[in-house]
């Protein structure tokens, strides 16, 4: 955060840098009052959150998104693969 105080940027881009950057984005935007450049935090969260992403892709008739299935043991996983 000290670099941001020194440089005083117009905004921040958090699409790059993996999960750490995304986790810091909320603090940068809300608490530090930096402008968010690029995709909104909500858009990034939607892309990363499997449930939210699936709900959006299910709305498309020709979606080729694989529907998620969760299994906690081999037997259940094999049944869900069929």
Strand count: 2
Stretches where pLDDT is under 50 for at least 5 consecutive residues are none
**Overall helicity:** 40-55%
Whole-number mean pLDDT = 77
Shape: elongated
Number of helices: 5
Architecture overview:
- The chain has 82 residues and is mostly helical.
- Helices cover 52% and strands 5% of the residues.
- Strands 1-2 form a two-stranded parallel sheet.
- Helix 3 (41-48) packs across helix 4.
- The longest helix has 13 residues, at 19-31.
- The chain is elongated.
- 2% of the residues are buried.
- The model has no long low-confidence stretch (mean pLDDT 77).
Please write out the topology.
Layout: H1 2-7, E1 11-12, H2 19-31, E2 35-36, H3 41-48, H4 50-57, H5 74-81
Parallel strand pairs: 1-2
Helix pairs in contact: 3-4
